[in-house]
Design goal:
Blueprint lengths: L4 H13 L15 H12 L10 E6 L2 H19 L5 H6 L10 E8 L14 H19 L3 E5 L4 H7 L6 E10 L9 H4 L8 H4 L7
Antiparallel strand pairs: 1-2, 2-4, 3-4
Bound molecules: flavin mononucleotide (FMN).
The site of flavin mononucleotide has 11 residues, from β3.
Length: about 210
């Protein structure tokens, strides 16, 4: 299968227009089940070390579960506030959209119970595979004009307990999904001058460090 210039441009547009969406931008409008399925199918079509496919997706619309996760966030976020110098900016950032988003998806890593090709030297490759799934989901969500936010200010053990997750799992990502009133043009943390954008030059090394 060969792609034409227009398709290449579309992929680039989707990648550049993808944004992290927080609560203030989510609408309560329901996401059609077939769109959730499209997003999940993109997840399971991600590359994975040794084709281990070590992911589990917990699709959550239960308000009690969301409430518990939101309480988990509030506790962790309160601790985080004291860590940053720019406390005022931090306090005003909305860093989650658990309750506003109609759907939450917890993406878990399931530890392999047998040796995996590619994980014999670098044991974190399983977790990295699940991150690839998350990125695929994020891009498909954006293509469907559905906002997605990644929430990581959470006590992982408590999330796993809330979900009744099996012992051989680890939380990789807690995602909030929903339609939005708008997608920001650039990362919000850039807009509020929390961080500057790095240029490609700053991110590249030719061959090796001198
Ligand atoms: C691993 C990971 C964890 C993240 N955790 C959070 C989070 O807890 N809360 C939040 O508001 N954004 C979170 N984000 C979103 C980033 O802040 C966001 O991707 C970054 O600021 C760039 O903005 P953009 O995604 O809109 O381009 C996370 C992103 C990644 C990749």
């Amino acid at each position: 299968m060969k792609f034409n210039q227009e398709q290449i441009k579309t992929l680039q547009d989707i990648i550049y227009a993808r944004r992290d969406v927080r609560g203030n931008n989510f609408l309560s409008k329901e996401i059609p089940a077939e769109d959730i399925q499209k997003i999940l199918l993109c997840g399971i079509n991600a590359p994975s070390v040794g084709y281990s496919q070590p992911w589990k997706f917990v699709v959550i619309d239960d308000e009690d579960i969301k409430k518990e996760i939101r309480q988990n966030f509030d506790i962790e976020n309160e601790k985080a506030k004291n860590i940053f110098k720019d406390k005022e900016i931090y306090k005003n950032l909305k860093l989650e959209g658990v309750k506003e988003a109609p759907i939450n998806i917890a993406v878990l890593y399931e530890y392999p119970n047998e040796p995996t090709i590619g994980m014999t030297s670098m044991e974190k490759m399983g977790e990295y595979s699940v991150v690839c799934a998350v990125q695929n989901m994020w891009l498909m969500a954006r293509a469907l004009n559905i906002g997605l936010g990644w929430i990581s200010i959470l006590d992982e053990k408590k999330v796993l307990k809330t979900l009744n997750a099996p012992k051989n799992t680890q939380l990789i990502a807690y995602l909030a999904l929903g339609y939005v009133d708008k997608f920001y043009k650039e990362p919000e943390l850039k807009t509020v001058k929390w961080k500057d954008e790095k240029t490609l030059k700053e991110c590249m090394v030719s061959n090796r460090w001198e």
